[in-house]
Amino acid sequence: MAKAYWITTYRAITNPDKVAAYAQLAGPAIAAGGGRFVVRGMPAKTYEAGLNQRTVVIEFDSLAQAIATHDSPGYQEALDALGDGAERDMRLVEGA
Where in the numbering of this chain does the DUF1330 domain appear (predicted)? Predict the structure, then answer.
């Protein structure tokens, strides 16, 4: 079974306090779902049409595990705390 990667980029952070509240809840919910943070932070360098925006990559043992974590009550609580505090692009990708 292929690993899965949860990739999030932050287009804009409009309320850092809401992002902090989200992070306090999201980290434990993701860890409880078996997620492991691989990347968290700003790009060291961007190329082509890359945007200089915060990027997070989380590894899961399977796509089903990543989906279940996203849909879990704990992570949904984190999303509620984030609310309109950031504009993000989030996707799940299976490993090669």
Answer: 3-95
- Cβ atoms of residues 69 and 55 within 8 Å: no
Kindly list the domain boundaries of the chain, sorted by start residue: 4-44+51-94
pLDDT digits (tens, 9 = 90+) for 27-69: 999 999 999 999 999 999 999 999 999 999 999 999 999 999 9
Rounded Cα gap, residues 6 and 92, in angstroms: 5
* Neighbour-count burial for 50-62, b at 16+ CB within 10 Å, e otherwise: eeebbbbebbbee
Q: What is the pLDDT of residue 1?
A: 79
